[in-house]
Automatic annotation (TrEMBL):
All copies of domain AMP-binding enzyme C-terminal, residue ranges: 419-494
Signal peptide start-end: none
Name recorded for this polypeptide: Fatty-acyl-CoA synthase
Keywords assigned: Ligase
Sequence similarity: Belongs to the ATP-dependent AMP-binding enzyme family.
Length: 506
């Protein structure tokens, strides 16, 4: 089979390492041969439901072997995989399904109510549920056992879409970043080169695979090398420590909050962490107190910078440079380039703050169905405009200085204020709304809502959270609400969020 994309990976892994453990999930193990057979059966099942090249297949579920079987099974058909964030509210799920025009949605049973509430506005043709299901409504496990496998040789190019990953919308609606087969292959290669991934590695996956960081920097490099993943449905610090010791985990990825909670756990001091050799951290800089706690156990971090549009990783800071280049997010990945542009778009000299721009085969081609937004995201010579501010030092190491966009990063989750502000302005009595990120010792940042309200109207934090609950994911709900007489604005009427951050964000 000639298939230049990730759809060929399972066939090749079966040839090279069929009996090697690919996944550990709970008390069960899945070999590469079994994972490949599952992907073949998913392909057959999807084809029975009319899925072909270019069709979207959505998946709403926790980390599991089924997630990967569906992703690779869809890829073998040339279909486009759409992972859905399990924390989304029904209206957000409906947007993802409608915008991607998903022909099939596969979801875990626990999300049935949310899916039912989302389907009024969605156009998905077929809905399948993971697990055994019932006699009346067979689940994915039953359906795959009876699927007739027939290999297809689908003509694909590296620049054909493999996935659409939705990013929180800066204008109220999430945008679908189209990631090609080439994008996903090159980001995996970048991680293999810069993080020294080897076939004997055992990676503990505590972050959800629907996040592109876990997928592009975790699952894909591991599978490409034929290593092993321990799949967890969620993160609980005590269980994570136990799994590291039980399975001899060598690789772990997370956000600063993840590592802080583990170091604060009662089992931290007694857990055998001697097998850990690769720790990666993203989302925000690792606080010194966490660096100290891990270095006391002989562990160092790789840190990095990226975004969904880079599949997602752009830079990596090797552990050896964590102290020498403290505060840096590292050097560009081996197959990726980073530059800094000044306000005119020209290259800025070392030490000068400007917009971070990224190029390379891991950079996405654009947003699904949004040509205007796609054009605005790239420079005339094809570099992706990150919207983030930073500078390169004399050695080429990148430092993040701030964000042109007002994105909030809370516990590794991206939150875009306009999405929340749009809903807040619908709350009765609210006359103006601004959402800012406020530093938080546990989550890095949390959203606060700064509101102006009509005279005589009582609005507080509880009122706002109750109003928003069910309309957006719960991690986006403001942790505090402040009522002010007037929002500071520019002459053109835009809210001056720098003033609000100076007043409330310290």
């Amino acid at each position: 089979m000639h298939h230049p994309g990730i759809g060929a990976w399972m066939t090749k892994r079966r040839l090279k390492s069929a009996d090697k453990t690919a996944l550990i999930h709970g008390e069960s193990t899945v070999t590469y041969g079994q994972l490949a057979d599952g992907a073949d059966r998913v392909s057959a099942l999807l084809r029975q439901h009319g899925v072909g090249k270019g069709d979207a297949v959505a998946y709403l579920g926790e980390n599991s072997p089924e997630f990967l079987k569906v992703m690779f099974g869809a890829a073998q058909l040339g279909a486009v995989f759409v992972p859905v964030n399990t924390r989304l509210a029904p209206p957000e799920i409906a947007h993802v399904l409608t915008d991607s025009a998903a022909r099939v949605l596969i979801h875990d049973p626990e999300f049935a109510e949310r899916v039912a509430n989302a389907m009024g506005a969605a156009t998905t043709v077929h809905i399948l549920v993971t697990g055994e299901g019932t006699a009346e409504r067979p689940g994915l496990d039953q359906l795959l056992r009876t699927a007739t496998v027939q290999r297809l040789d689908v003509a694909l190019r590296p620049d054909d879409p493999a996935a659409i990953v939705y990013t929180s919308g800066t204008t109220g609606k999430a945008k679908g970043a189209v990631l090609t087969h080439g994008n996903l292959t090159w980001v995996a290669l970048n991680c293999i080169v810069d993080y020294d991934v080897v076939s004997t590695d055992v990676a503990l996956m505590i972050s959800p695979l629907f996040h592109v960081a876990s997928l592009g920097m975790g699952a894909l490099p591991i599978i490409l090398k034929g290593a092993t993943m321990v799949l967890e449905k969620g993160f609980e610090p005590g269980r994570a420590l136990a799994q590291i010791q039980r399975h001899g985990v060598t690789m772990l990825s997370g956000v600063p909050t993840t590592y802080q909670l583990m170091a604060d756990h009662p089992d931290w001091a007694t857990t055998d962490l001697s097998t850990l050799t690769k720790l990666t951290c993203g989302g925000s800089a690792v606080p010194v107190r966490i660096l100290n706690a891990y270095e006391e156990r002989g562990l160092s971090f790789s840190q990095g910078y990226g975004m969904t549009e880079a599949s997602p990783s752009a830079t990596a800071l090797p552990p050896a440079m964590t102290r020498r280049k403290q505060g840096s997010v590292g050097l560009p990945h081996f197959f990726t380039d980073v530059r800094i542009a000044d306000s005119t778009g020209a290259a800025a000299p070392a030490g000068t703050i400007g917009e971070i721009e990224i190029a390379g085969p891991n950079v996405f081609p654009g947003y699904h169905g949004l040509p205007t937004e796609t054009a605005a995201a790239f420079t005339a010579d094809g570099w992706y405009r990150s919207g983030d501010l930073g500078y390169l030092d004399a050695d080429g190491y990148l430092y993040i200085s701030g964000r042109l966009k007002d994105m909030i990063i809370s516990g590794g989750e991206n939150i875009y204020p306009p999405e929340i502000e749009r809903l807040l302005n619908e709350l009765d009595g609210v006359t103006g709304a601004a959402v800012i990120g406020v530093p938080d010792a546990r989550w890095g940042e949390v959203p606060w809502a700064i509101l102006t309200v009509r005279e005589g109207v009582a609005v507080d934090t509880e009122t706002v959270r109750e109003f928003l609950d069910g309309k957006i994911a719960r991690y986006k709900l403001p942790k505090n609400v402040v009522i002010v007489d007037e929002l500071p604005r520019t002459a053109s009427g835009k809210v001056r969020k720098t003033d609000l951050r100076a007043r409330f964000g310290a």
